[in-house]
Design brief:
mainly alpha; about 80% helix; globular
Length: about 425
């Protein structure tokens, strides 16, 4: 192992099966990063000019939101699968439907409607694919190595948002965006081959309790029944929802308030992504993090980084704050998943993670949808500030709830105290 690798990551990277999975995920995430740009670009290429906006919105939504439907409709069957097969099923569906896009384009039959249908089909099992990934990590790795592993996987997604659009930007300038989406399909083939080579772990068996294992809503039922898991999902969902308006307000802040070129917007997002990679890896190097308190601090810290937009801070300050915000936000996904892995019953972990993924698929899009009218009413700067202040308030409330729940726990009785109680009796 290279001495450049932080000590916290050496044990998990020393496991060959994890290294193989991480390599496959890195290729797949790069493809997703490329599609982040190519999906909207291709919609513009093949749509009539007067309705391009509608088709772009439909394509972007179709690439993600049907995963919510898939989490519910296919749960009856998929929740019985081992995690490896869940991930393989998602890889296969993604590869087939995304691969059909360049084929239809080459044949001259790719209409906007067919394009949206193919994108929707590709995302139907994606919530289960995400659940399969993190469930597989929990099955393959000992508990002490899950947080570093989750950190490495989640950090790959941030790195892909930096490298993927840059690669796609070059490719769409020379070939059609349909070819880029075809390359994304090939990355899922690569991941599927890697997953096929992994050992199939027998999931732990446990009592189903009051959870109906015959329905696709088992994960949601368990989340409703477990207050800690439900609280974790509520915090994560609301945090992502409050982030949604940023994706609307920041471009308008750059183009309208600052009257700056699009390159400045690229700098904001590039530095956010770099900060997220650095922050995630730094946090993953720390041992025995208090997961809940750190998550609350992240929520408050990210919100505080948006407040300078509302007070007219210079552009250099807001760019620095956005980069700092990325570093603060970086560890959040790994922390949230690790808490789920620790607290969900092992025999229901895949269902819980699929329900989590399905719920979170709705958070940022709904926040983005709300960001449109809010930005129109308040202006871009005020919307960014309002998002930040509301996020800070969310973190404060979460912190108070955490303190209240911990103070309400019964204090364990020590041996001397127990002896005194016996003497008094």
């Amino acid at each position: 192992m290279s001495p450049l690798v932080p000590a916290a990551y050496r044990p998990v990277l020393g496991i060959p099966v994890f290294r193989r999975l991480l390599g496959g995920l890195a290729v797949s995430y790069l493809g997703d990063g490329m599609s982040f740009l190519a999906v909207a670009w291709l919609a513009i290429e093949i749509s009539p000019a007067d309705s391009a906006g509608l088709w772009v919105g439909g394509a972007v939504a179709a690439y993600t939101l049907p995963g919510v439907v898939g989490a519910l409709v296919f749960g009856r069957w998929l929740r019985r699968f081992p995690a490896r097969r869940m991930l393989l099923a998602d890889n296969t569906v993604r590869a087939v439907f995304l691969g059909a896009v360049p084929v239809a384009w080459a044949l001259g039959s790719l209409s906007p409607g067919l394009y949206v249908v193919l994108l929707a089909g590709s995302s139907l099992l994606h919530a289960w694919g995400s659940a399969g990934t993190y469930t597989l990590l929990a099955e393959l790795l000992p508990a002490r190595q899950r947080f570093p592993a989750n950190t490495l996987v989640s950090t790959l997604t941030f790195a892909a948002t930096i490298a993927g659009p840059a690669v796609a930007g070059v490719l769409v300038s020379h070939v059609s965006a349909a070819v880029v989406i075809g390359l994304d399909a090939l990355t899922y083939v690569v991941l599927a081959v890697v997953v096929l080579g992994l050992p199939e772990v027998v999931p732990p068996i446990g009592p189903a309790g009051h959870i109906d294992t015959g329905t696709g809503r088992g994960g949601f039922a368990l989340l409703r029944a477990e207050r800690g898991l439900l609280g974790l999902l509520a915090l994560t969902w609301t945090f992502n929802f409050l982030y949604g308006p940023v994706e609307v307000a920041l471009p308008l802040h750059v183009t309208q308030d600052l009257e700056a070129p699009g390159s400045l917007l690229g700098i904001y997002w590039m530095l956010f992504g770099i900060g997220a990679v650095v922050g995630g890896l730094a946090a993953g190097s720390l041992q025995r993090l208090p997961l809940w308190p750190v998550m609350v601090a992240i929520v408050i810290g990210w919100g505080a980084c948006l407040v300078p937009f509302a007070v007219g801070a210079p552009t250099t300050v807001t760019v620095a704050c956005f980069a700092l915000g990325g570093a603060i936000y970086g560890p959040f996904v790994a922390l949230s998943v690790t808490l789920m892995q620790q607290n969900a019953p092992p025999q229901h972990l895949a269902s819980v993670l699929a329900a989590r993924s399905a719920a979170l698929l709705t958070a940022a899009p709904l926040g983005t949808a709300l960001g449109g009218p809010v930005t129109a009413a308040l202006g871009a700067d005020s919307t960014l500030g309002a998002s930040g202040l509301t996020t800070v308030a969310l973190g404060v409330v979460a912190g108070l709830v955490l303190l209240a729940s911990r103070s309400a726990r019964p204090t364990p009785i020590t041996t001397p105290q127990l002896e005194r109680d016996v003497e008094l009796r």
